[in-house]
Design goal:
The chain is of the alpha+beta class. It contains eleven helices and 17 strands.
């Protein structure tokens, strides 16, 4: 597999996935959870041995049944397998949804010969529909797990995604792999998607939880497609310790490298979601510098990329910077308009400054428009209040997004 070294800390395995770390296997099957889809839609990810686990969850107050059961199982901080499906969210499904989620855990555990409480169940798709257990249950029995099955597992969790999203990194004797799905109902309120991360590093549970929280805050919590937060979102990391390199915790020599690697995996997966967003033609990157605090920088960056006005202006290559400035003022971040400097960054070209010192600046409209034409559009905001900085990523808003979401269930 092709690798690239990042900051001398770790190698990126471009074709890597959740089965890149040793001891993990996966597989998937097509059972027609949605009868109008011809795709893999049920998958299993498993470790040879129980894993230390950490997770973050949706903040939606009407969580799906599968998520409720998974949260209960994850209170022990240990997991060994994931059973996941696409096409049905198993949300707003009452007691039957709970019973179905439990049954999936029990059947998966029986197949693998493990404790059902070590199984996480994840569902994504249409809300308010029941899992077709008459097709899902027989399908589980046919899934063949393999160390080469990570890509099929990534495909099995896709809904309106157009491509599987996966990555892995390696440092020293251990590696981290990850897959994610999600291109609609995406808004940073934990992690609006299904994300599964594996590592063969031995990691203490408190350190793993802290590292995941930090990684999620700077990646999945900094993206937006449509300001919606779904009821099923989970970001789960599983560490099986099979690298046998010693337990990584805060003071361990590999702690910084592990944290950086996990953050790289999460950021790559988060950006890949926005790049593949429903109907999108642009990836918008908002860079905020000089905010009064990190929290303020994140507030401002997030508000820019979630603004419908900004999204539509970028789609139309309209350098309507007033919408960006308005989003900053509406973000809740501390702001002094006489200290704000706002600019568009060209693809390898000049920075076009459009606002500074409380007033619009004369600028070349053609140069500003040219900054908005590439697939990736970058906005830079200098707040002039401190040293807080953050980056957020969002998609533009197109006619195709409206079309896709007007016919999703019909």
């Amino acid at each position: 597999m092709e690798t690239t070294t990042v900051n001398q800390k770790f190698d990126v395995i471009a074709e890597g996935t959740v089965t890149t770390p040793r001891g993990f296997s996966a597989g998937a099957v097509h059972v027609a959870v949605r009868t109008d889809w011809d795709k893999l839609d049920v998958g299993i990810l498993a470790s040879e041995v129980p894993c230390i686990a950490a997770a973050t969850y949706t903040q939606n107050r009407i969580p799906g049944a599968s998520l409720v059961i998974s949260k209960q199982h994850l209170t022990s901080g240990r997991v060994q397998a994931v059973i996941a499906n696409s096409g049905c969210a198993n949300a707003a499904t009452g007691q039957q949804g709970m019973d179905d989620a439990i049954a999936l855990c029990q059947q998966t555990a029986g197949k693998l010969g493990i404790d059902p409480h070590l199984v996480v169940v994840a569902s994504t798709g249409v809300i308010g529909t029941f899992l077709p257990m008459d097709r899902v249950s027989p399908g589980i029995d046919t899934i063949a797990l393999s160390p080469d099955g990570g890509l099929d597992f990534a495909r099995s969790i896709m809904t309106t995604d157009t491509r599987p999203k996966h990555i892995a990194v390696r440092a020293g004797g251990w590696s981290i792999g990850g897959v994610v799905k999600g291109v609609g109902m995406i808004h940073p309120n934990m992690a609006t998607m299904l994300c599964f991360i594996t590592t063969d590093a031995a990691v203490s549970q408190p350190f793993l939880h802290s590292a995941l929280r930090e990684a999620v805050d700077s990646s999945f919590n900094m993206i937006d497609v449509d300001s919606d937060t779904s009821p099923d979102d989970i970001a789960l990391v599983m560490a099986n310790g099979l690298s046998d390199t010693g337990e990584i915790e805060t003071e361990h020599p590999d702690a910084e490298t592990f944290t950086a690697g996990l953050k790289y995996v999460c950021t790559h997966l988060a950006k890949s979601m926005v790049e593949d967003a429903e109907g999108a033609s642009k990836l918008i990157e908002a860079q905020v510098e000089g905010a009064a605090s990190l929290a303020d920088a994140r507030l401002a960056a997030r508000e820019i990329i979630r603004s419908v006005g900004v999204k539509t202006a970028i789609y139309g290559h309209d350098a309507n910077w007033g919408r960006i400035l308005s989003a900053i003022g509406n973000s809740g971040a501390q702001v002094d308009e006489y200290k704000v400097k706002l600019s568009f960054l060209g693809a390898g070209g000049p920075e076009v400054v459009v606002f500074a010192d409380g007033s619009p600046l004369p600028y070349d409209l053609g140069a500003a428009k040219a900054c908005l034409e590439p697939r990736e559009v970058k906005i830079r905001v200098q707040m002039g209040l401190g040293d807080g900085s953050a980056t957020a990523w969002g998609s533009d808003l197109t006619e195709e997004f409206v079309r896709l979401n007007s016919v999703y269930t019909t």
